[in-house]
Design a protein that fits this description.
This protein has 11 helices and 13 strands. It has about 325 residues and is an alpha/beta fold. α9 links the parallel β9 and β10.
């Protein structure tokens, strides 16, 4: 996986504080086997043509981005009896220019048919993007850019991993990671307050409660009920700015009043309402239209444009080194 950038970008992405590969669960290598089985379910006709002579292939990066997905590519080729020598490390920039239109990223060595068995599977794990994050930073906004759960079935681990390497927050990983109460939950339960109270009764202290809101009034109800995050869903840019500012002012008034009253005199409901609730914005946000939705009172901008087809993929190719053979 890779994360696309732009040649004119001035945004700085924080360096990793550890090895991203150490995030992967013990079961992740089994997924690679499934990918290979899916791509060659029966006869390998191309493999019959090329045979098992030892070959060398170069992985070329042909559009700007950052390298992400080294563990997946290594394992794909390891399962096929090949080796990979990397010239860039995870998170390094891939920066082709007019004079150097492709960058040598790695060399893969092994039997010809095995190189080709792994080629497309490996390349398909590497073509993702982080352009949305860079666009936000270049607009001067320093909040959290987050992905969504709208990932490709069976490919979530790779897509969420790519978000992390690209500097993007992966948001919740699955339904068990955080309680997100959307309109269907609220309508089914009867009200935001009832839905939040039901969620809190089973979520425990370690799981955050996240509520999708269609109006400022709904956001205020969610916060009063004890939500940790409110999502302003499909608001207009002006509506985002007004609602986010109003919620921040609510919090400032409540904490000011609490400070005057003293910690010992507050009721439980007052303490819950006075806490800082994160404000998230979502709904149709892309690299092109996001600027007007960025404001200092918004904490999180979430969008599936990070990992779905609306963002250009990063161009990689794997080419076997030609040999001069006698006729």
């Amino acid at each position: 996986m890779a994360s696309s950038a732009t040649a004119t970008s001035t945004a700085a992405i924080a360096a990793p504080l550890g090895n991203y590969a150490h995030l992967l669960p013990p079961s992740w290598k089994r997924v690679i086997t499934d990918w290979l089985d899916e791509d060659t379910p029966s006869f390998d006709y191309g493999g019959f043509v090329v045979g098992e002579g030892q070959e060398e292939a170069t992985l070329w990066g042909k559009s700007e981005g950052v390298l992400a997905g080294v563990p997946f590519v290594d394992e794909i080729f390891a399962q096929l009896g090949c080796t990979v020598e990397w010239y860039l490390k995870e998170g390094d920039a891939v920066t082709p220019t007019k004079d150097t239109p492709k960058i040598k990223v790695a060399t893969v060595r092994g039997p010809a048919r095995c190189l080709l068995l792994g080629e497309r599977v490996a390349l398909n794990t590497m073509a993702r993007s982080r352009r949305v994050l860079l666009a936000a930073r270049n607009h001067g906004w320093q909040g959290i850019i987050a992905g969504t759960r709208k990932t490709t079935p069976g490919f979530r681990l790779v897509e969420k991993y790519g978000m992390l390497v690209g500097g993007v927050d992966p948001h919740r990983y699955d339904l068990s990671s955080m309680v997100m109460l959307k309109d269907n939950h609220v309508w089914s339960k009867g009200s935001i307050t009832e839905a939040v109270l039901a969620a809190k009764s089973v979520a425990g202290f370690s799981i955050r409660i996240h509520v999708e809101c269609q109006s400022l009034a709904e956001a205020r109800e969610a916060i009063a009920a004890g939500a940790d995050i409110v999502m302003l869903d499909n608001f207009t840019p002006q509506g985002i700015a007004e609602a986010a500012k109003a919620l921040k002012e609510d919090w400032e008034r409540q904490t000011g009043a609490s400070a005057e009253a003293g910690a010992g005199s507050r009721g439980e409901g007052q303490a819950s309402a006075a806490k800082r609730c994160l404000v998230e914005v979502s709904g149709g946000l892309t690299e092109e239209n996001m600027a007007e939705s960025l404001c200092p009172d918004v904490d999180i901008l979430s969008t599936s444009a990070i990992h779905q087809g609306s963002v250009p993929i990063v161009d990689f190719s794997l080419k076997i080194t030609p040999r001069h053979r006698s006729a």
